Amino acid sequence: MKKKIFGLLLIVALIAIALTNFVKSKVEEGQKVDTSSTQVSAKVEKNSGLAINQTAPNFKLKTLDGKEVQLSDYRGKKVILNFWATWCPPCKAEIPHMEKYYKKQAKDDGVEILAVNLTKSDKDEDYIRDFVKSYEITYPVLLDEDGKQQKQYEIVTIPTTFFIDKNGRIQKKVVGPMDQDMMSQTIATLK
To answer: What pLDDT score was predicted for residue 190?
Structure first.
């Protein structure tokens, strides 16, 4: 039984690695992504896309407490844009590191963390709210209720995180969990 489980996990890991490498190669090739069909905001910025140094596609989502926020509201700050779900074990492992970074360093570094919950593939809002309380998350949690941002940002594997500079441009994409040191080091390289 253990061999079957190990074999299954190995196959899943290989598929995840293959998908990650495929997506990464497409981003590195600088291919533009057609986001016109998933655009949430009516305002489309020139040179917007998912490639490094392109402006991160803008969106408007609501937080758990019902407040609407747009990514463009955070211009002038560095942004860690994290896509996650409550059922994701690597996401759960990453949350305490993000929370430590948020509490200890984010303000000094001029950083905001925006955690976009893939609500369409998650449980209901009350469950997410209880999850956030149990993990003592204090950074903003946004709800992608209809899955538009998951499509727009081409999220295949979670957690996936985009590091966005003060001008709203994507500087790095990380697929998989991060720790506090990795966040600090990456933020230090942003303009």
So the answer is: 86
